[in-house]
Design brief:
The protein has helices at residues 2-23, 25-54, 64-70, 77-84; strands at residues 89-90, 99-104, 110-116, 119-126. It has 131 residues and is an alpha+beta fold. It folds into 2 domains: 2-53, no CATH class; 58-126, Beta-lactamase Inhibitory Protein, Chain:B, domain 1 (2-Layer Sandwich), CATH 3.30.1450.10. Strands 1-2-3-4 form a 4-stranded antiparallel β-sheet.
């Protein structure tokens, strides 16, 4: 995670320096406007995901079995929230690693997801026993 952050900021700096050398200050202004637009697009997407998740109960999903089938390792928490359209019920302590969240459906089935470094590492489907 730290390496990606350093790489991102190095790329931004390289883009601005390249724009300065090629086009002068108008190039820096154009590259800066492009970066701001990119940030606004990501912010708008994040706000849309959170707005949809705010309208549902915490930790609720329509089908835990379908969620289990659609999960993929390496996805971020934001992608999982967008997929479930609900915030997960936090099971781990605040700031603890790995972060563990659970989504349950009405049949009693639930999916517990473990996020390490902000990425989905493992998940487990738990189904109620049938008598």
């Amino acid at each position: 995670m730290r390496f990606q952050s350093i790489l991102l900021w190095a790329g931004v700096a390289a883009l601005l320096v390249l724009a300065q050398f090629q086009f002068g200050w108008p190039g820096v202004a154009f590259a800066g406007a492009g970066l701001v637009m990119w940030l606004l697009l990501h912010f708008t997407r994040l706000m849309g995901v959170m707005k949809r998740a705010a309208n549902r109960p915490v930790g609720h999903v329509d089908s835990a079995v379908m969620l289990n089938a659609k999960l993929q390792p390496g996805r971020t928490l934001m992608h999982v929230i967008a997929q479930t359209r609900a915030l997960g019920e936090r099971l781990s302590a605040e700031g603890a690693q790995p972060e563990i969240y659970r989504w349950s459906d009405e049949s009693g089935s639930s999916v517990s997801c473990e996020f390490e470094g902000g990425k989905l590492a493992r998940w487990q489907l738990v189904r109620p026993t049938q008598d």
